[in-house]
Structure formats: C-alpha cells, structure tokens
Amino acid sequence: xxxxxxxxxxxxxxxxxxxxxxxxxxxxxxxxxxxxxxxxxxxxxxxxxxxxxxxxxxxxxxxxxxxxxxxxxxxxxxxxxxxxxxxxxxxxxxxxxxxxxxxxxxxxxxxxxxxxxxxxxxxxxxxxxxxxxxxxxxxxxxxxxxxxxxxxxxxxxxxxxx
Amino acid sequence: xxxxxxxxxxxxxxxxxxxxxxxxxxxxxxxxxxxxxxxxxxxxxxxxxxxxxxxxxxxxxxxxxxxxxxxxxxxxxxxxxxxxxxxxxxxxxxxxxxxxxxxxxxxxxxxxxxxxxxxxxxxxxxxxxxxxxxxxxxxxxxxxxxxxxxxxxxxxxxxxxx
Lengths: 162, 162
What we know:
Chain A has 5 helices and 5 strands, in the order H-E-H-E-H-E-H-H-E-E. Chain A is an alpha/beta fold. The first copy, chain A, has a 5-stranded mixed β-sheet, covered by helices on one side. Chains A, B: Belongs to the beta-class carbonic anhydrase family.
C-alpha cells in the first residue's frame, strides 16, 4: 500500500467525526504564510480551528509572485486583514545556495530553472525580506498588521522578528 | 487585542505540550499541494502527524512556478517521492474570472498584475491541469505517484479525480 493510500484510509476516520460545512471566508480574517516544513503544523502551532485562517505555504515560507497572488485573492475577495509570516529553525533553505542547487539540476536534466530557488542564510533577515516584499506590492491592499515570526522546531515556540 | 496576538497566546499552550524536535526530512516521503482554504486542515484531513509530509498551499491549490520550486526542493533535497494534490468544493477560485479580478486591481491601483490569477471553472479539470503541469516539468524528478483529489467541504471526504 502506498503512503497516499494509507492517508486516504485516514480520511475515512476524519469523515466520521466531521461537523461542517463552514462558510468560505476565514472567520478570523487572517492569512498565514509559512514554510512547507513537515514539523510545522500551522493549525496546531497557532491554535487555529477549521474555517478561521487562510494558510499559504511553500519551500521556506518566502514571498514570491505566487504568494502575492494568494494574498491579493485572500484580502480582496475573502476579506482577510492580518498577515502572519512564519519561518523556522533548522530550515532546509539554510543548507544550500541557489547557484549550487540550480547547477545540480542543470547538470542532471540539461536545463537550468528560470526561477530563484530562494535559499537564505539568515532566518530573521529573510522574514524581514518577506515582509518587505509584501509592503512593496501594490496588489496587497491591507498592510496594517504584517508580522513575522521564527518557529523553533525544538520547543514549538514562535518568536517575533523585530 | 489583534487576532495575531490571540493566536500567539494560543502558541504558549502549544509549547506546553510540545514533544519535538523531529528530523528535517518528511518521514512519510510525501508532499501535499492544497488550496489555502481555511476549512481544509491538511494534517487532520489526511491524519498526518508533525514531521510526516511537506505541505504546500496557495489560492486554489494550483501549480505555478513556485509550487514547482517547492516540489523540486522537496524531492531533490528532502527525499519526498509521492505527491498529493487537493482542490475542494465551494472554492473561491470558481467565483471570478482572471480578467475581471485583474481589471478590478488595475482600476483601483493603476497597474495590472503581470501574473495569472489562476481562477478556474471546473474542479476536476483543474486538478488534472495541476497534475499535467507537474508531469511537464523537468525539475520535479519523481513522477511515479502524483494523485489528485477534491475535498468536499460539506462532508470532509476526499474523492480521487480520475
């Protein structure tokens, strides 16, 4: 049995105790942008329940064009007003450089990705970079509360980046 | 108190019962790509525990360049092998067109986004589109198990898209 089949079997148990449906717009009017890291269960870390917040995730929790797209839709069409950014300790993005990652792909498949891999060397600095990218975008209208945090994978604690 | 402050207070309770740290690579070698929708708690829907799977999310659960970047890092650097795609019923992406959304932004702020909004009219078709984009990418190496599902927000059930 594949892992996918195993997770589908888990879904049957979820259905048994499901109590929805809930409304489409997030009831707490918050959008979270976080790293895809497996150890970062955003709902549990923030005590969120189903229906309360949009959750946007990618490698690093960085802000690229696709996160601006998602935040624009989140705020303009679904009414979110606060943004929470979450990077974390022991992140894979700290372990390589864009140059070496893209070179390894080029060597293997013959073409170099036309995108930045978005690796970084400093967690706090990259959180501030992500906040800056949102602040710089004309497409995200509500910028009153954009706050950035680092999640400690050893303790579960969020620390705000000054 | 802002919602962000309220969620930070929740984090203190999470820290109290935290039992990490866990290893960096996802132990089930799976990456999930899902919509950012607030009602879709990916860990609960699939019965995932912390540390088991990468979770990538955006508006629609669509595959753009940033999801290819995340999947490339997930597979090449962190060893995931299976991909699960999840769209869902009652999705906001079904409620507008790219043309009207981008026109409304242009009318308000004076510049039209250079990106596609990625709205769609058919859930199953868009899941297949997302699978196709991954299959077409030279940067995602492992394509043996790429399966797509629609999550029913009324029942909690995942249905595989043929």
